[in-house]
């Protein structure tokens, strides 16, 4: 009997993805474990393997299709001697399994009788949200997506039609016409799954997390000298950057002030036992934060090589979900772009993110009123006030500053 190949769940919480590219065509033979497609999730483009051998009889979802639900059929796999005529009719993702007959029924919690509940129409989550916001009945729409699925464009068309059918308001006096501005040339860049998730999470962070900000100035001349000395003796084993040393200092400071290594939940504040530091990496598709596990325990050379390797695979969309999920703290460094200071948005559910600016030479007044030239780096800590108080954030920045200005402690 022909089998349906289903849209896989490639990361925790994944509900849908983009079928970016088919690597096999209809009629091609596939082996178990062979890569047959590339799936774009909110964080990376991942490879999909065939669960068993066979012949790819039919592609149900074209390459480039957005919003394909997890467990939705995307292709038909045939065995030798089977034909497409025997294949089951395409069906939407399977509903949750019903309890066994032997299980006792659970008490009803809804006040509406089951036969009064509205039918659930096959539609993408985005289409459902847009329809609810515009008071549009999904039952009245015809879907243009795979297997008649209602997608965003169907809701937008219905909304435009409703607007056109609405009676025009009474005419009001209009101001004198003004010359029309010339039409602007634009390039349309459709949102990727990653860009949509970044927008949603950052909006959620700014709207729901009570941010406050603490800044500190660090003199980094000793740090720069230590970096030069270590790189001189490292041969080809590693090449340290200032960012490597900053991340190491950020990790060790979390071990000194563990209260900053925390997460807010509705029931409790969670403090992480391990120091896992996420590092913000800019990619063509958006920002991603690969995680350095137990960063405080690793040597500078190991840390440097791991950062470079993770960042390279992040830019190539080759990270595994476990490599960018989790982490208790994030470091975002824009100093390499000449940015002197900035305040970053917290990466939920973390409580803190450290924004690192460029080191700049300037005059510094010492405690004895002497004036010297020094390289100064501005760092700003964005903090979730629900889980980390101002005094804790200040203690963390003080510990971080001490490590940066006495960098030999990073070698201990």
Molecular structure report:
The protein is of the alpha+beta class. The chain has eight helices and 18 strands. The protein has helices at residues 125-134, 152-165, 193-208, 221-233, 242-256, 300-315, 321-324, 390-405; strands at residues 3-6, 16-22, 29-30, 35-40, 45-49, 54-59, 65-69, 73-78, 211-219, 262-264, 269-271, 277-279, 281-283, 286-288, 291-292, 329-333, 352-365, 371-384. Strands 9-18-17-16-12-15 form a six-stranded mixed β-sheet, with helices on one face. It has a four-stranded antiparallel β-sheet with strand order 1-8-6-3, with no helix packed on it. The longest helix is centred in the middle third of the chain and has 16 residues, at 193-208. It is globular.
Given the structure, what is the number of helices? 8
Largest sheet: 6 strands, mixed
- How much is the radius of gyration in Å? 28 Å
Which class best fits the helix and strand makeup?
alpha+beta
Q: Which consecutive residue ranges, at least 5 long each, have pLDDT under 50? A: 92-120
Please trace the helix and strand order, writing H or E for each element.
EEEEEEEEHHHEHHEEEEEEHHEEEH
- Strand elements, count: 18
**Main β-sheet, spatial strand arrangement:** 9-18-17-16-12-15
State the separation between the terminal residues, measured CA to CA: 63 Å
How much strand content do the residues show? 15-25%
Net shape: globular
Estimated helix fraction: 25-40%
Q: What is the arithmetic mean of pLDDT?
A: 84
């Amino acid at each position: 009997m022909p089998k349906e190949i289903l849209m896989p769940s490639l990361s925790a919480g994944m509900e849908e993805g983009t079928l970016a590219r088919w690597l096999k065509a209809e009629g091609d033979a596939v082996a178990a474990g062979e890569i047959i497609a590339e799936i774009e999730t909110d964080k990376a483009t991942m490879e999909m393997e065939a669960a068993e051998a066979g012949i790819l009889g039919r592609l149900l979802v074209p390459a480039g299709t957005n919003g394909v639900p997890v467990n939705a059929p995307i292709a038909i796999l045939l065995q030798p001697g089977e034909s497409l005529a025997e294949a089951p009719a395409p069906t939407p993702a399977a509903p949750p399994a019903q309890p066994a007959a032997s299980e006792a029924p659970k008490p009803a919690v809804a006040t509406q009788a089951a036969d009064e509940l509205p039918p659930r129409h096959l539609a993408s989550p985005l289409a459902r949200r847009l329809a609810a916001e515009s008071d549009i009945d999904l039952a009245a729409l015809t879907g243009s997506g795979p297997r008649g699925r209602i997608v965003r464009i169907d809701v937008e068309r219905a909304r435009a039609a409703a607007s056109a059918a609405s009676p025009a308001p009474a005419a009001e006096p209009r101001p004198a016409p003004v010359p029309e501005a010339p039409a602007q040339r634009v390039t349309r860049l459709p949102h990727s799954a990653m860009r949509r998730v970044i927008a949603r999470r950052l909006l959620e962070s700014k709207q729901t997390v009570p941010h406050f900000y603490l800044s500190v100035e660090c003199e980094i001349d000793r740090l720069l000298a230590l970096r030069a000395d270590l790189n001189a003796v490292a041969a080809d084993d590693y090449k340290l950057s200032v960012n490597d040393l900053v991340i190491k200092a950020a990790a060790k400071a979390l071990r000194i002030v563990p209260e900053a290594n925390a997460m807010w939940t509705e029931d409790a504040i969670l403090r992480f036992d391990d120091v896992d530091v996420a590092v913000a990496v800019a990619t063509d598709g958006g920002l991603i934060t690969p995680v350095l596990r137990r960063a405080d325990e690793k040597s500078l050379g190991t840390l440097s090589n791991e950062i470079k390797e993770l960042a390279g695979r992040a830019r190539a969309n080759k990270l595994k979900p476990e490599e960018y999920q989790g982490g208790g703290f994030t470091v975002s460094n824009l100093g390499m772009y000449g940015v002197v200071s900035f305040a970053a948005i917290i990466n939920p559910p973390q409580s803190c993110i450290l924004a690192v600016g460029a080191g700049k030479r300037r005059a510094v007044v010492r405690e004895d009123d002497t004036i010297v030239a020094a390289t100064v780096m501005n760092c700003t800590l964005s903090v979730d006030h629900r889980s980390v108080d101002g005094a804790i954030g200040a203690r963390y920045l003080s510990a971080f500053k001490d490590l940066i200005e006495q960098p030999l402690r990073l070698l201990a």
